[in-house]
Design goal:
The structure holds 2 protein chains of 2 kinds.
Chain A (H helix, E strand, L loop, with lengths): L5 H4 L9 H9 L3 H39 L2 H4 L3 E2 L4 E2 L2 H32 L2 H16 L2 H28 L14 H25 L3 H9 L4 H12 L1 H17 L2 H6 L17 H8 L6 H32 L11
Antiparallel strand pairs in A: 1-2
Chain B lengths: L4 H40 L2 H5 L13 H32 L3 H15 L2 H16 L4 H25 L3 H9 L4 H12 L1 H16 L26 H10 L3 H35 L1
Helix pairs in contact in B: 1-11, 3-6, 3-9, 3-10, 4-6, 5-6, 6-9, 7-8, 9-11, 10-11
């Protein structure tokens, strides 16, 4: 037994705080707290401010073109900087069409990957495969473009098309001569680029499905696949749609890779083999070489259109994903 | 279920196999891209590549030194602009973000994350390039910084939220003021995670090309002047890839290899840190 100092056993009587004093101490907020919170609040305000400023700048710069061309800007397809005539139909069409092609390719693949990663893959394989798929999202856009020019386009032109021509050549979607840079190449590149986003978000959505749902499905005698198809996927439907829309948002705004492979021609063509153009690509190519104020303003106007589309699409996706896992930001780590 | 048991199991096996195939197919492009970069890029990598700037077409021995330096400078500027604001916003969201304003900021961050980077590029042009009258590395750095902010806000928030509440309670019980608790205990515990978030975000903006097209513009010469046009790796790869010369294409592959090594190294380091941290907690 060691001796315990007397002071520990009988500490000197400290002046006791009265109940009132204690309450006041708890209620008072120190000056440091106020400053801390104000500084953080002001900095956090910058983000909404930035969004507002972008909107204001785009609109004010786009106004000249908007007032000159009116609604016809969206429906005409002549884009002639020299004569000062601008119609954005081919750009809007190309943006939507290339993204649609990308989703048609990427969504089934991404969903299958998400199901693989959450349901079927052996446990030791899940993390490495998920990491590899996420790394796809880390590859810079310009590298996809480079690869598209020198690998994907020759592959599509010399390997894929000569074989596929006999099976698909009669479709209007595959009419005309195939030179390489085309809507098809743009769509395939975009599909590769959005796949990791859709996979990552739908994977988190599927992980958020309560185990009881899965167990109930299996207990009713469904096979594992039937459980996935009839229980798990329908349960996460809202979130999966959110994931797809998020992928759509990425595809709509993607610039460099698309610019490098899509052919950059202001034309509306249903054929995937023909060159096309997208809003982002047109801005990238023409902005620093705009020949007149109207040309510049027209580019701002398509930029504003893209901005509005992107905001609507992303807001929609957020709401859908949030509905599945309220409070926690599902998929935010992947994005 | 009227279908035979065998058929149902067969469908199950086929679909399971299909998901294996899908996963393989999804990884295939990554393998091909990395493989091509190694094959085509490594061949053009030599000492000159890292020490020389671009030379006129036809001369041998040009390199990407100006572009590598440019990327480092522009990304450094982006961090100087974006990291303080982004991290502070993230801390705000985690500590005081419960109310309506916090919800709005979070929503705006997510929406801004989805705004195409080319739009940020033209915004930076109207704000910095147009008033200043010339393209500049500064404008490029600010444009990339604006892309950093919403990403950082969300990752920082997540990291700060991971800190157990007991730590905060312990600090408060010891008589720490709230702001000191928040900064010196909570945020400090999350520091590793926050740094990780920065690495991931930097990896992403380092590869961005679109916002630099009308801000930093690119430059064939070595320059460290923030007020003037500056080269950057992704810009140089873009220009060389679209150019007509084989030598340019060779160097574009090499530049892309350097870029992807940079980006993937940052992402992989970040991933490893997070994993170690989560296993610790």
């Amino acid at each position: 037994m060691t001796d315990i100092p007397a002071t520990v056993l009988e500490p000197e009587a400290a002046p006791r705080a009265t109940a009132e004093e204690r309450r006041r101490a708890l209620r008072t907020v120190s000056r440091g707290d106020v400053i801390y919170r104000s500084v953080l609040t002001v900095l956090a305000l910058l983000l909404p401010l930035l969004l507002l400023l972008i909107a204001v700048e785009l609109v004010s710069n786009a106004l000249p073109a908007a007032s000159k061309f009116g609604f016809g800007f969206l429906t005409h397809s002549t884009w002639d900087p020299v004569r000062g005539e601008f119609g954005a139909l081919p750009l809007i069409f190309g943006t939507l069409y290339s993204s649609l092609v990308a989703l048609v390719i990427a969504v089934p693949l991404a969903l299958a990957c998400a199901v693989f990663l959450t349901e079927f893959a052996p446990r030791w394989l899940r993390t490495p495969v998920a990491t590899l798929i996420e790394l796809l999202a880390a590859v810079p856009s310009v590298i996809y473009g480079l690869w598209g020019i020198f690998v994907l386009i020759p592959l599509l032109r010399d390997r894929f098309w000569p074989v596929a021509r006999h099976a698909l050549g009669w479709l209007p979607m595959f009419s005309g001569v195939f030179y390489g840079p085309s809507m098809l190449a743009g769509g395939v590149i975009l599909a590769i680029m959005v796949l990791p986003y859709i996979t990552a978000v739908s994977r988190e959505v599927l992980l958020a499905v309560p185990p009881s749902q899965r167990e109930a499905g299996l207990a009713l005698g469904a096979t594992r696949w039937e459980t996935v198809w009839t229980v798990i996927l329908p349960y996460g439907r809202a979130g999966i749609i959110g994931a797809v829309i998020l992928g759509l948002g990425r595809a709509l705004g993607e610039t460099m890779a698309v610019t490098m492979v899509i052919g950059n021609r202001h034309e509306v063509s249903a054929s995937l083999l023909q060159p096309g153009y997208t809003i982002a690509a047109a801005i990238a190519n023409e902005f620093s070489e705009a020949v007149s104020d109207v040309h510049l303003s027209a580019l701002f106007l398509v930029g504003a259109v893209l901005f509005v589309i992107a905001i609507v699409v992303n807001a929609l996706a957020r709401v859908l994903v949030w509905r599945v896992a309220r409070g926690s930001a599902v998929g935010s780590t992947a994005i | 279920m009227m279908r035979g048991r065998l058929l149902r199991r067969l469908v199950g096996s086929v679909m399971t196999g299909a998901t294996y195939g899908a996963a393989a197919l999804a990884i295939l492009p990554l393998a091909i891209i990395l493989g091509m970069l190694l094959v085509k890029g490594a061949g053009a990598l030599d000492w000159n590549f890292f020490t020389k700037s671009a030379v006129p077409v036809g001369e041998a021995g040009g390199g990407f030194a100006h572009a590598i330096t440019g990327t480092l400078i522009i990304v450094g500027l982006a961090c100087a602009v974006g990291v303080p604001v982004g991290v502070a916003t993230g801390i705000f969201l985690a500590e005081f973000g419960g109310g309506r304003f916090g919800f709005a900021v979070r929503f705006v961050a997510d929406v801004l994350n989805g705004v195409p980077s080319i739009v940020i590029g033209i915004f930076a042009w109207t704000w910095l390039v147009k008033p200043m009258g010339h393209f500049s590395a500064l404008a490029g750095g600010v444009a990339l910084g604006m892309i950093l902010v919403p990403i950082l806000a969300r990752t920082t928030e997540e990291m700060v939220r991971l800190v157990p509440n007991s730590l905060r309670e312990a600090a408060l019980a010891l008589g720490y003021q709230r702001w000191r608790t928040s900064l010196q205990v909570v945020v400090r515990s999350a520091a590793a995670g926050i740094v990780t978030g920065c690495l991931v975000a930097v990896a992403r903006v380092a590869g961005e090309t679109a916002p630099l097209l009308f801000t930093a513009l690119g430059n064939q010469f070595f320059s460290t002047r923030l007020q003037g046009p500056m080269a950057a790796l992704p810009l140089q790869v873009y220009v060389y890839a679209l150019g007509p010369y084989d030598e340019w294409h060779r160097q574009a592959w090499a530049g892309a290899l350097v870029l992807i090594v940079l980006v993937l190294a940052l992402s992989l380091i970040a991933r490893a840190v997070v994993r170690a941290k989560r296993q610790h907690a």
